[in-house]
Batch of 2 targets.
Target 1
Amino acid sequence: ASGTGAARVTTLAGSTCGYADGVGPKVKFNQPTGVDVTSDGTILVADRGNNCIRCIRPSDAHVWTLATRGNYGYCSSIYSPVDVAVDGQGVVVVALAHCIGLIRGGQLITLDGVQVTSTTSVAIDQLGSIVLTDFDKVNRVSSIRKLEACLTPPL
């Protein structure tokens, strides 16, 4: 039912569109499209327009860049990330333009053999499998897909 609860909304970080790490309103994002929270409370942000994954420490609103686009070729770098998910071990799953990436130990790894058209959301289940949405406007196909036990050890 609508109107049954009250919520207080605060801005953790960000102001005008652009790119800047830092604290509070000095920070700039460009099309933030997905978020998740690590076990220590750090907020991960898919910053699509800046081609990077950003982190926010809620205690002081400090924002820094975890991973960004590099010169590694197609789907070997952060390009147009739309969502993020993190498991209990700190492995970050990133839904990129046309592939799925993992950030593990500071390295970006793309999942070979996983063909996606346009992923908009990712999640991790209790067994370490990646669940994602995928749609293809041209062929009019929309699906929810599961990549079995991709993360080891699982949550």
Note: The two ends are 33 Å apart (CA to CA).
Target 2
Amino acid sequence: LARIPPAMFWRCKSLASATIPDSIQAIGKFAFGNCERLCSVVLPDSIHVIDEGAFINCKNLDAITIPSQVTKLRGGVLFGCCNLRTLVLHNAVTEIESEALAECEKLEHVFIPASVVKINDNAFRDCDAVVIHSPCRSYAETYAKKHNIKFSAE
């Protein structure tokens, strides 16, 4: 099994934590969607793709680090993770798609590398407390200013 299939753990009420093995290279659409008790996920660097909505509405997830080989934060991937406070992206990421982090009301810190050259206009919809941390003169800084999002130079 090199991929967690779409909706594999959809609405799994008892799943509180997940450590994904190194053999996994991709997480399918909605794989962990609506796992409301899920609070901890460890993702290995072997993962290249995390599909749309993979962690949608995981209401207890409070922090996540996107693996170093993932190039896009896909649409709705963390939508509605209302207790998510911190997100760390690595240098492979070049794009943050539509509503990737929408309705993450408690999101405080997003660390965006200089490699990101595209962020969808509504990627951070209803994330009023967020601070984008990124290098000076990065695309993320331009995006933050355009959308009145707090910015911290890293």
Note: The helical segments are 139-146.
